[in-house]
Design goal:
The complex is a heterodimer of chains A (about 725) and B (about 150).
Chain A lengths: L2 E2 L5 H10 L23 E6 L2 E4 L4 E5 L8 H13 L6 E5 L22 H28 L7 E3 L2 E4 L4 E4 H9 L27 H5 L15 E6 L7 E6 L1 H5 L3 E7 L2 E6 L2 H10 L1 E5 L8 H11 L5 E6 L2 H7 L2 E9 L11 E6 L4 E5 L4 H12 L6 E5 L15 H13 L3 E4 L2 H6 L7 E9 L5 E10 L18 H4 L11 E7 L15 H18 L4 H8 L4 H14 L10 E9 L2 E11 L5 E11 L6 H20 L5 E2 L2 E2 L17 E6 L17 H13 L10 H4 L3
Chain B lengths: L1 E5 L2 E5 L7 H8 L18 E4 L2 E4 L12 E3 L9 H8 L9 H14 L5 H8 L9 H15 L5
Parallel strand pairs in B: 1-5
Antiparallel strand pairs in B: 1-2, 3-4, 3-5
Helix pairs in contact in B: 2-5, 3-4
Bound molecules: FE2/S2 (inorganic) cluster (2 copies).
Chain lengths: ~725, ~150
């Protein structure tokens, strides 16, 4: 039986410490010493930071990525197990502590999960970790039998010597393997010998998630731990001007009230007591410079800014001139709102702070940043802080905050009350306290020639930079934050004159990456506008795209597959219409066809979505399908429902009644088709999101003749009665 | 002192009798399978059974369940066709919503052993899944229904 270990062990950190910084994979490390092993587990072979093989045949794979639903607790062990020739049924996994050995293979200097990078960044490292161990185990067996290693092979957790039909388990070899020096060359299997990778393997975490035993951040800390709730300022940047906390303090169960720079915390012996205490706080806020902030005003400002030139993200040919000379020019303005991540598990953090140590149990995507932030706040050294990564009840980027906002807040409270606490943001806090996908305003123009082909493309984007003010700000080049223009400055369509520029106004609203980041808005604009061009040219939107993608075979392949699956061009049920979109992001290519009807009252119903994906080589196809299904739901929530808006500085939404997300009754039938590919692995968590909105809105246009240029779709706009 | 009858065990609880059942279950009984998602009956994460009926435990006080039988996700046997179907279809992604989803699905199948898609829409639309596992939830409910009715539909 597979198990997912989510007990976090301080002791294991010691083992990790043995590995030293800058571990190079394949370099064997000293075998686990008795005192460095978790109680009850006999580990004798620790070939590297990612693997422990016990003399009891246990195979523990240490995972440096956070499991937030995307399946890394299964796909990453598969990478190790493939090369290790492990018996899959003996695999256990354990979340990694924070240590340089577990740093992201591509991000440098930090441990974290995001950008749809887990499989592609670990593809070689984890396979190498497994292969190195296998080579050593084979050598240990060959030594034991006094035969040549080349005459042995590994299979299902055993080393075999076929000529003599001998067989020995990895566990029995562990002690001996631990004494061997590591291999110097570690070849990986050629693709045609892969057995596990590319097959649909059941997720290791499903049983725990089905019986309620999976421990999320909000479940950590045990019974009777003190609960902390925070009253945040009603306006971003607000501060406490005066506080009367007597009633709150006298509320039954309330233990303490703590003033923070981010608000006022109430600490109590239960959630309900903390909530009542918080309700009883009398706070006068200094609302600060955002007190008059309004979405309506901001939209006008953005629209005005979009009429002026911005920082240049791409300049090719002379779009200005070509636009003037084109047979016809088409202009449009698009906009999308701020969006909350609305992770199903609201943000929370459990902290136990002592004089010389701080333990944090949290669902996080940014372990190193959170650890360092906790160290700063607590006054400890980073090595005195342990981050225990729990299951994440969704991430979507919200739990990867360079500012570590919710961790910082929780550690400050623990420091003040000097007791272990579980800080919980209520859904209302989670909706209102920010870090949103930025609001965007786009002005776009194109010129087409007499045959309908686009000859010029000019796109101005207005929206806040996510990178600005973070440690990643150095990535902003010549005023262009790549995450603001991704998917827009690199459009694949063959257009000779292209100009894309960017304005990055500052607003005071905290913004962050949100599943698919910049692509979440650029794909909507680019793919909707391309549809406008196809219609202006009087051409079929699918054929129009294909013709402009001659040098992009992967785009073409997914488009064709999605169109085939949907039966593009064939008759549909009465009042049903198709829309199509294609977009590449995070190293993968996705096309979707949405089948939509629009009721006379303007309600949009999405009946089916056909999705084709090329993500290169695959690890676990069923997970890929699941990620596409989920991404489509995520995209539909934003297309049909989501908006965070401000009035008098205040966020107008608070919970799922006014920030709705898709429900079961709105779920379309989703068909996912994966293109067989020998290309390097691409991302899978995010690339399914970007095409959803344009595919649906293009179908809405086919149904109604009305072009949706502002999300979410407002039924008033489509009403026909 | 109030007491709670949960999964066949009677727990005395020293809490105000207007305390919300959800938090008492989680914080005082330590049964953390039941989740908090919204606190206002919008998401279904906190679904438990009270005398066999699915209810949102964030909306119910300890006083209201005196003398009633409460079942949480921990009280549904691992052999239950719904749990088995969930594993078979690898339904969960992050998994946070699924204790609630499963409690709603178990209750649905008790009432309607062979639910139609429309029945599923009606019974399950109060359970949000931000990861978007709805298609698999639907599939798994049909699978569980078939297992329960011995393949007859
Ligand atoms: S927490 Fe009870 S319905 Fe959402
Ligand atoms: S599986 Fe994540 S919210 Fe449902």
């Amino acid at each position: 039986m597979n198990t997912v270990m989510v007990i976090n062990r301080r002791r294991f950190l010691k083992t990790a410490a043995l590995f030293g910084g800058g571990l190079i994979l394949g370099v064997a490390l000293p075998g686990g010493k008795a005192d460095s092993q978790p109680a009850g587990e006999k580990t004798s072979f620790v070939p590297n930071a990612f693997l422990r093989i016990g003399s009891d045949d246990s195979v523990t794979i240490i995972i440096n990525k956070s499991e937030m639903g995307q399946g890394v607790y299964t796909s990453l062990p598969m990478l190790v197990a493939e090369e290790l020739e492990a018996d899959w049924s003996t695999i256990r996994i354990e979340p990694a502590p924070v240590h340089p050995a577990y740093n992201h293979a591509e991000w440098g200097g930090m441990q974290g999960t995001g950008g749809s990078t887990s499989v592609k960044s670990e593809w070689t490292r984890l396979r190498t970790a497994g292969a190195a161990a296998r080579i050593m185990l084979i050598r240990a067996a060959a030594d034991t039998w006094k035969v040549k290693p080349e005459s042995c092979r590994a299979e299902q957790g055993h080393v075999l010597h076929p000529p003599t039909r001998r067989r020995i388990s990895y566990g029995a070899l562990a002690e001996k393997a631990a004494k061997l020096s590591p291999p110097t060359t570690i070849p990986l299997k050629p693709d045609n010998q892969l057995k596990l990778l590319g097959t649909s393997v059941k997720r290791l975490d499903t049983p725990a998630k089905v019986n309620g035993s999976a421990v999320f951040g909000i479940d950590a800390g045990g019974k009777d731990i003190l609960i902390a709730l925070v009253a945040h300022p009603p306006v971003f940047g607000g501060k406490v001007k005066s506080l009367s906390a007597d009633t709150a303090r006298n509320t039954q169960g309330v233990k303490d009230v703590v003033v923070l720079d981010s608000g006022v915390a109430v600490v109590a012996d239960s959630f309900w007591a903390a909530e009542r205490g918080r309700d009883a706080l009398e706070i006068v806020w200094d609302e600060g410079p955002m007190a008059a902030f309004e979405t309506a005003t901001q939209r006008k400002e953005y629209a005005a800014l979009a009429q002026t030139p911005g920082a240049v993200a791409r300049h090719e040919g002379d779009a200005e001139k070509a636009l003037k000379q084109a047979a016809r020019s088409i202009h449009a303005e698009y906009e999308v709102p701020y969006l909350a991540h609305a992770t199903m598990e609201p943000l929370n953090c459990v902290v136990e702070l002592r004089d010389d140590r701080c333990d944090i149990w949290v669902g996080t995507q940014f372990q190193t940043a959170d650890r360092d932030a906790a160290a700063r706040v607590s006054g400890l050294k980073p090595e005195q802080v342990s981050v225990h990564t729990m299951f994440l009840g969704c991430g979507f980027g919200r739990r990867a905050n360079p500012a570590s906002d919710f961790v910082v807040e929780a550690v400050k409270i623990a420091k003040a009350v000097k007791k272990p606490i579980r800080m919980i943001w209520t859904r209302e806090d989670d909706t209102k306290a920010g870090y949103y996908r930025p609001m965007w305003y786009d002005r776009i123009s194109a010129g087409i020639d007499t045959s309908g082909k686009p000859v010029a493309w000019r796109h101005t984007i207005v929206g806040q930079s996510i990178m600005e003010g973070t440690p990643f700000a150095a990535s902003i080049r010549n005023g262009v934050d790549e995450t603001s223009v991704e998917g827009a400055h690199d459009i694949p369509y063959a257009i000779p004159h292209v100009h894309v520029d960017l304005h990055s106004p500052k607003t005071g609203v905290p913004v962050l990456w949100w599943r698919s980041v910049g692509h979440s808005h650029t794909a909507f604009v680019v793919e909707s506008f391309l549809d406008e061009l196809a219609h202006a040219a009087g051409q079929d939107p699918y054929a129009y795209r294909l013709a402009l993608l001659k040098s992009h075979p992967r785009h073409r392949a997914v488009l064709k597959r999605a169109a085939e699956q949907a039966g593009w061009g064939r008759p549909l049920p009465k009042n049903h219409f198709h829309g199509i979109a294609v977009h590449a992001s995070f190293g993968s290519y996705v096309a979707q066809v949405a089948e939509v009807s629009v009721k006379p009252d303007g309600t949009v119903r999405v009946h089916k979505v056909f999705c084709a994906v090329d993500c290169g080589k695959t690890v676990n196809p069923d997970t890929i399908a699941a990620q596409m299904e989920g991404a489509i739901v995520f995209g539909l929530s934003a297309t049909l429902h989501g908006a965070i808006t401000f009035k008098q500085g205040r966020v107008e939404q608070s919970n799922f009644h006014d920030y709705p997300v898709l429900r079961m009754a709105e779920m379309p039938e989703v068909t996912v088709s994966i293109i067989k590919s020998t290309e390097a692995p691409g991302g899978i968590g995010e690339p399914g999101v970007p095409p959803v909105a344009p595919a649906v809105c293009n179908a809405v246009f086919a149904a109604t003749g009305k072009r949706i240029r502002r999300l979410p779709i407002r039924t008033e706009e489509l009403k026909r009665t | 002192m109030a007491s709670l009858h949960v999964n066949g065990i009677v727990y005395p609880v020293d809490v105000p009798d207007d305390a919300p059942l959800l938090w008492v279950i989680r914080e005082k009984l330590g049964l953390t399978g039941t989740k908090y998602g919204c606190g206002i009956a919008q998401c279904g994460s906190c679904t438990v059974h009270i005398d066999g009926k699915p209810e949102r435990s964030c909306q119910i006080t300890v006083r209201e369940v005196q003398g009633k039988r409460i079942t949480t996700i921990e009280g549904i046997p691992d052999t239950h066709p719904v749990k088995k179907a969930w594993i078979e279809d690898d339904v969960p992604q992050c998994g946070y919503c699924h204790p609630g989803q499963i409690m709603s699905a178990v209750a649905l199948l008790k009432e309607k052993p062979s639910p139609t898609d429309a029945d599923i829409d009606a019974a399950m639309s109060g359970n949000l899944c931000r990861c978007g596992t709805y298609q698999r939830i639907r599939r798994a409910i049909h699978r569980a229904a078939q297992a329960k009715t011995g393949g007859k539909r």
